[in-house]
Design goal:
- The chain is about 30% helix and about 40% strand.
- The protein has about 140 residues and is α+β, with helices and mostly antiparallel strands.
- The protein has one domain: Nuclear Transport Factor 2, Chain: A.
- Strand 6 and strand 7 form a beta hairpin.
- The radius of gyration is 15 Å and the shape is globular.
- The protein starts with 12 loop residues before the first helix and ends with a strand.
- It comes from Citricoccus zhacaiensis.
- This is DUF6318 domain-containing protein.
- InterPro entries: DUF6318 (IPR046281).
Length: about 140
């Protein structure tokens, strides 16, 4: 189960980087369990990719399917803080493990080949009410 780092609760560059890494750990947990609690806490409601991942994986598990997948590796290339410390952007490189989805009867469903060193652009906001960074945009590049 992923544990949110304390740094993700600080409106700093280090906090933003910690939140980005935590988002991907929460995504691994979502894919492995169908539990979106952790990814929800660091995603804004207007993050399309965040909501799409949440909906897809919770539905698989609600229908009694499951998945086998490995960990995701994330390397933060850079981050910038703007908007008076309440917004941030960054670039990361992500390597995802292959995955296999299973149907309720145990037969294989969809699968993913994984990816190596795929670049992503990130945007985030520091939620002053919740006192933590939340991702609002993730876009694969290239």
């Amino acid at each position: 189960m992923p544990e949110m780092p304390d740094a993700a609760k600080e409106p700093t560059q280090e906090g933003l980087e910690a939140a980005i890494k935590y988002w991907w750990e929460a995504g691994d947990f979502l894919r492995a369990t169908g539990d979106s609690t952790h990814i929800d806490e660091v995603s804004t409601s207007n993050c399309d990719l965040c909501q799409s991942q949440r909906n897809r994986w919770t539905e698989i598990y609600e229908l009694r399917g499951w998945a086998e997948t490995g960990p995701t590796e994330v390397e933060v290339q850079f981050t910038n803080i703007d908007n008076g410390g309440l917004g941030g952007t960054g670039a990361i490189v992500v390597s995802e493990s292959p995955s296999q989805i299973y149907q309720p009867n145990g037969s294989p469903g969809g699968s993913g080949d994984g990816s190596d060193d795929r670049p992503w652009a990130i945007s985030a906001v520091f939620d002053e009410e919740d006192q933590l960074w939340k991702l609002e945009g993730l876009e694969p590049q290239g």
